[in-house]
Amino acid sequence: MSSDQARTITDTPLTALRRSLAAHFSDAELQILAHDLGVDYEELADQTKSAKIVHLIQAAARRSAILDLITRCQAERPNADWGAIHAAAMADPQQFLLAPDEIQPPLAISPNRALKIGFALGALMMLLLACGFGGGLLAGQVVRVTLNPVQPNPDSLSQVIIRIENQQFTPQSASISFARAMQIIGHLPSGASLALQLDNVQATTIADMVAKGQPNAPAGDPHIRFLANGQITANVRIRQLGDKRVVLAYTARAEGGRIVTTPASAWVNLVEVPNTTFGWFPLPQPALEQVTRWIQAQLDTATRDFWFDNVTVEENRLLLAGTKR
């Protein structure tokens, strides 16, 4: 028996999956896998490939998506042997989770990255000097509508309006939970039509559930509003900026079957003065790009089984319509 064969037999499923990902996928391909699963792979930009693979596996395991990861690997590399790994995941997906004390801490920040962070902080200070008090005035129209944040309410999800084919209902009227309604939607046959209608509270509740399920997400504590001008505002805290409060305004559209978001404006409150438009400044572009990528990745992951041909934003209402792929 060769040493490779012996090692394969003695490897745990977690080790076998880690070795297989390292052997059969490049760093760029792993990044695509992470994006498809809604995992922020780029946050480990200065880490080794092995560390990134561990991060990907652990993120998938925490989200109960380890089978999804392995299935995607099988589809991408059908000639590799995934059978034993897949069987192990079917039997006990929790065995792919490491204990907290087994996870290696991130490597120290490289001098190059430290220099970039220094430049970013310097640019932020220059931004403060350049914008002064004017930022609050410019941000006023976008920020003002978010000064009274929408609060999440899980009970509101029982009133989400759902239309499947020609039948319209809410989870409450159908005497089922919101989670059960989502399971039914997930098992619709290909070509079945679907429409969803969400209000501010329902969208905020769903966004809050997603953010709390992802401790490493770049944004947290979300509050969502749908505006009459067709924009969606998200009042969130950005971890990259020390949990500063940020207001993002987006437009959303259906494009190629996807729900595509485009940032319209973004502002950060650097002085944390409550209930006022004072102290708001333009959000640095790197932070905006990171959050926008994360939001788009969440949308792509949640809606990948559907083809959306209509996205409509109105006052306190988002309408989505499409078909099951």
Could you describe the 3D structure shown?
The protein is an alpha+beta fold and 325 residues long. It has two domains: 3-102; 134-324, no CATH class. The protein has eleven helices and ten strands. The chain has helices at 3-10, 13-24, 27-36, 49-62, 66-76, 83-91, 111-131, 134-144, 178-186, 200-212, 285-303, and strands spanning 161-164, 167-169, 193-198, 219-226, 231-238, 244-255, 258-269, 280-282, 306-314, 317-324. A five-stranded antiparallel sheet has the order 2-1-3-10-9. Strands 4-5-6-7-8 form a five-stranded antiparallel sheet, sandwiched between helices.
What is the topology?
Elements: H1 3-10, H2 13-24, H3 27-36, H4 49-62, H5 66-76, H6 83-91, H7 111-131, H8 134-144, E1 161-164, E2 167-169, H9 178-186, E3 193-198, H10 200-212, E4 219-226, E5 231-238, E6 244-255, E7 258-269, E8 280-282, H11 285-303, E9 306-314, E10 317-324
Antiparallel strand pairs: 1-2, 1-3, 3-10, 4-5, 5-6, 6-7, 7-8, 9-10
